[in-house]
């Protein structure tokens, strides 16, 4: 199995799907000649030309709307946001068009579109480039939302998203593009609606996704050496949440820690707590613990930026605190 960087895994997925299906195309700023801001589309323009790797003006609402119209005609566009924060300019198109048209047309149209790009808190990118929009989009009916976290799941999930007949918002973390991993050389797809059990354990269920998966693993490596046995679940699918996998774990551990980079107020963690209370409340021996980012615009200052997000030491302490409960 060859080692591959996450951005190359995404490029391979896109290339493979474009090669087997002439209806797949890429639309976005600098995706063509430049190869994308993070080189996810590097080399694709030379291979497929202007009509299938289309450089656009800086007008997110226009090219996202164009891509949705293309999807209505049977094409399968992949929209790359140079930064996912910029797609707030296309919020109307994503919510009122991509999410609704299949329903408001009585099923006459499907919208097989993937909207993908980098997000999350980087390294001093400033407030407008450090947003986490997953909770913004989670409230929109008709969308599927996926957050990749490794080269392996990035490739398998993107291929599945391109083939899906529904609009998929595909989140990539700006600090994970250079993550390297062995992945299979043969083709594979991963389900868009399933969580991944990263580590089995019996003491506490840790729910996380995207970059925080790696912070959790760092914390758990230390906790295991100290005698704790946490279970780690990477949500992968943020909409719909894989509540069956989550509840199965809670029935075993009876304790939950949520670790997210999303904002605390009305974030992914808030929805998780609501669904856990609805589906697994009787199995809890302790209130759900939520570790989330501060409810402030991300500062540019490096030290202040670091203070706004969760780190492995905080995860380690939260697990120790919740496991100290005597029932």
UniProtKB/TrEMBL annotation:
Domain Transketolase-like pyrimidine-binding, residue spans: 4-179
Subunit structure: Heterodimer of an alpha and a beta chain.
Keyword Ribosomal protein attached: no
Regions annotated as coiled coil: none
Organism, scientific name: Titanophycus setchellii
Function: The pyruvate dehydrogenase complex catalyzes the overall conversion of pyruvate to acetyl-CoA and CO(2). It contains multiple copies of three enzymatic components: pyruvate dehydrogenase (E1), dihydrolipoamide acetyltransferase (E2) and lipoamide dehydrogenase (E3).
Keywords: Chloroplast, Metal-binding, Oxidoreductase, Plastid, Potassium, Pyruvate, Thiamine pyrophosphate
CDD domains per the UniProt record, alphabetical: TPP_PYR_E1-PDHc-beta_like
Catalytic activity entry: N(6)-[(R)-lipoyl]-L-lysyl-[protein] + pyruvate + H(+) = N(6)-[(R)-S(8)-acetyldihydrolipoyl]-L-lysyl-[protein] + CO2
Gene Ontology molecular function: metal ion binding; pyruvate dehydrogenase (acetyl-transferring) activity
Keyword set includes Zinc: no
Protein name: Pyruvate dehydrogenase E1 component subunit beta
Cofactor(s) the protein requires to work: thiamine diphosphate
A Pfam family: Transketolase_C
């Amino acid at each position: 199995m060859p080692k591959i960087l996450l951005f190359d895994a995404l490029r391979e997925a896109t290339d493979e799907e474009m090669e087997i299906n002439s209806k797949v195309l890429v639309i976005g700023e600098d995706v063509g000649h430049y190869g994308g801001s993070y080189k996810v589309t590097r080399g694709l323009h030379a291979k497929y030309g202007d009509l299938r790797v289309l450089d656009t003006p800086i007008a997110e609402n226009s090219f996202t709307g164009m891509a949705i119209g293309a999807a209505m005609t049977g094409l399968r566009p992949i929209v790359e946001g140079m930064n996912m924060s910029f797609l707030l300019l296309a919020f109307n198109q994503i919510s009122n068009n991509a999410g609704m048209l299949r329903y408001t047309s009585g099923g006459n149209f499907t919208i097989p579109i993937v909207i993908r790009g980098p997000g999350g808190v980087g390294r001093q990118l400033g407030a407008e480039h450090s947003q986490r929009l997953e909770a913004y989009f989670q409230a929109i009916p008709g969308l599927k939302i996926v957050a990749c976290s490794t080269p392996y799941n990035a490739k398998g999930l993107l291929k599945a998203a391109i083939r899906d007949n529904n609009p998929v918002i595909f989140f990539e973390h700006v600090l994970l593009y250079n993550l390297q991993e062995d992945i299979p050389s043969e083709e594979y797809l991963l389900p868009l609606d399933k969580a991944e059990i990263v580590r089995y354990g019996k003491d506490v269920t840790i729910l996380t996704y995207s970059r925080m998966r790696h912070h959790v693993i760092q914390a758990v490596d230390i906790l295991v050496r100290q005698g704790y046995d946490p279970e780690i679940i990477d949500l992968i699918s943020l909409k719909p949440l894989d509540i069956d996998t989550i509840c199965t774990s809670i029935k075993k551990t009876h304790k939950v820690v949520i670790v997210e980079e999303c904002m605390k107020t009305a974030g992914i963690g808030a929805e998780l707590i609501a669904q856990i209370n609805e589906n697994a409340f009787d199995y809890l021996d302790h209130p759900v613990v939520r570790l989330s980012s501060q409810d402030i615009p991300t500062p540019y200052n490096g030290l202040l930026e670091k203070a706004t997000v969760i780190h492995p030491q905080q995860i380690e302490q939260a697990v120790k605190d919740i496991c100290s409960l005597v029932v």
